[in-house]
Specification:
single chain; 496 residues; alpha/beta; TIM Barrel; 8-stranded parallel barrel; 15 helices; EC 3.2.1.2; glycosidase; carbohydrate metabolism; hydrolase
Length: 496
């Protein structure tokens, strides 16, 4: 059983659980409050600190521009509050459906899709011209194509409406964290590996910048650099290729040429600028609220051990042996005081098939270390549902890579972990028993604590974003620095 030791409490890492994707259904109805209440009380009894929920744009602004309906979510939030849990709310500006684990289908609002019928270039597009309707292309971020609004203005208005309509839940301390969706699956990336277009693991994926808006931006950037003749890549293969079968990603391939480097820098910088702009809007929308702001970065661990890191490059993470693709994201987040939420925390290299050249452990170490070096908080989640001790121990190790410190805060510690996800399977007795141990070990063997101040999470009123950081300063963070050292295993095993 847990205890309450003030020093050990400084090692406490809160645990949240993701709610089912369709807990509020596509018709904006909170379907099964009684069933969910039972489950939430079981989570509360297990010591869980809170839950995370997708707040779908496609549900809330379904009826037309600025016609918001928060009713279903208000009912859900009330229930979470009654059950004594805290809440992480995701501003989900993407479609649900078409990705790993998507069991329901929630498209983006119909009125936006109708604009896309007339102008399909508002969507991400691959080289063959396939459109991806999961999320609007970055190319329309600042174009007033949506009944006079830009994509950024749409996201901004949505967040302001959330604040106005959920202010009682924010002020009461129920909503503690706003995760701002920045792309497909809510992640800051390009939709480079869509199952809906036939991608299968471990395909390298495809670049997604062939809509007319991004094409024009690239042509302008190339001309400005004195290379008007440069075009977007046409030698990067297709979704299910391996790096060596393409001219772009093979050893000594296009990615190492002047033209290749120019393209990859442009492509990955688009993500940095996109995230930066939307986070500035988020801090304006929630300024003065006692919440933290977070974003999610995807754990693309396949081909990490290949020279070209092809699957990361197509997603927009320009990460190589001699170039850190993640620390610039962390540096961009510093001015917004935002948390970097990373995935695949449960995975170990030894569990992966060797032909994918996958290295989830090294990837997690690189990304978390980059966040800590930039002095931001990092959080994370598992990529796939797991109920076994090995997965839980790996997550605990990543949460405190050098173990607990009996005399104060640990040397390194994650800000929180969100478990994916709430299901009947998780609540089966044998699975729930080990999950309770996981929560207790994440809490450093301490009892559940309601007040985050006790474990050093001081949530203060959100301040506006700091001064803009110049892109060249952000890109100084591409210089690789060796990651922090991780212990070989956690000192807080669930089966220890």
């Amino acid at each position: 059983m847990g205890t309450s030791n003030p020093n050990m409490l400084l090692n406490y890492v809160p645990v949240y659980v993701m709610l089912p994707l369709g807990v509020v259904n596509v018709n904006n109805v909170f379907e099964d409050p009684e069933g969910l209440k039972k489950q939430l009380l079981q989570l509360r009894e297990a010591g869980v600190d809170g839950v995370m929920v997708d707040v779908w744009w496609g549900i809330i602004e379904l009826k037309g521009p600025k016609q918001y309906d928060w009713g279903g979510y208000r009912n859900l939030f009330k229930l979470v509050q009654e059950c004594g849990l805290k809440l992480q709310a995701i501003m989900s500006f993407h479609q649900c459906g078409g990705n790993v684990g998507d069991v329901v289908n929630i498209p983006i609002p119909k009125w936006v899709l109708e604009i896309g019928d007339l102008d399909p270039d508002i969507f991400y597009t691959n080289r063959s011209g396939n459109r991806n309707i999961e999320y609007l292309t970055i190319g329309v971020d600042n174009l007033p194509l949506f009944h006079g609004r830009t994509a950024i203005q749409i996201y901004s208005d949505y967040m302001k409406s959330f604040r106005e309509n959920m202010s009682d839940f924010i002020e009461s301390g129920l909503v503690i964290d706003i995760e701002v969706g920045l792309g497909p699956a809510g992640e800051l990336r390009f939709p480079s590996y869509p199952q809906s277009q036939g991608w299968e693991f471990p395909g390298i994926g495809e670049f997604q910048c062939y809509d007319k808006y991004l094409k024009a931006e690239f042509k302008a950037a190339a001309a400005k650099a004195g290379h008007a003749e440069w075009e977007l890549p046409d030698d990067a293969g297709s979704y299910n290729d391996v790096p060596e079968s393409t001219e772009f990603f093979k050893s000594n391939g296009t990615y190492l040429t002047e033209k290749g480097k120019f393209f990859l820098t442009w492509y990955s910088n688009k993500l940095l600028i996109h995230g930066d702009q939307i986070l500035e809007e988020a801090t304006k929308a929630f300024q003065g609220c006692n919440v933290t702001i977070a974003i999610k970065v995807s754990g693309i661990h396949w081909w990490y051990k290949s020279e070209s890191h092809a699957a990361e490059l197509t997603a927009g993470y320009y990460n190589l042996q001699d170039r850190d693709g993640y620390r610039p994201i962390a540096r961009m987040l510093t001015r917004h005081r935002a948390i970097l939420n990373f995935t695949c925390l449960e995975m170990r290299d030894s569990e992966q098939s060797s032909d994918a050249k996958s290295a989830p452990q090294e990837l997690v170490q690189q990304v978390l270390s980059g966040g800590w070096r930039e002095k931001i908080e990092v959080a994370g989640e598992n990529a796939l549902p797991r109920y076994d001790a090995a997965a839980y121990n790996q997550m605990i190790l990543n949460a405190r890579p050098n173990g607990v410190n009996k005399n104060g805060p640990p040397k390194l510690s994650m800000y929180g972990i969100t478990y994916l996800r709430l299901s009947d399977e998780l609540l089966q007795k044998s699975n729930l028993d080990i999950f309770k141990k996981f929560v207790l070990k994440m809490h450093a063997d301490q009892d559940y604590v309601e007040d985050p101040h006790q474990y050093n999470h001081v949530i203060t009123p959100l301040k506006p974003s700091g001064p803009k950081i110049r892109l060249d300063e952000i890109l100084e963070a591409t210089k690789p620095i060796p990651p922090f050292r991780w212990d070989s295993e956690t000192d807080m095993k669930v089966d220890g």
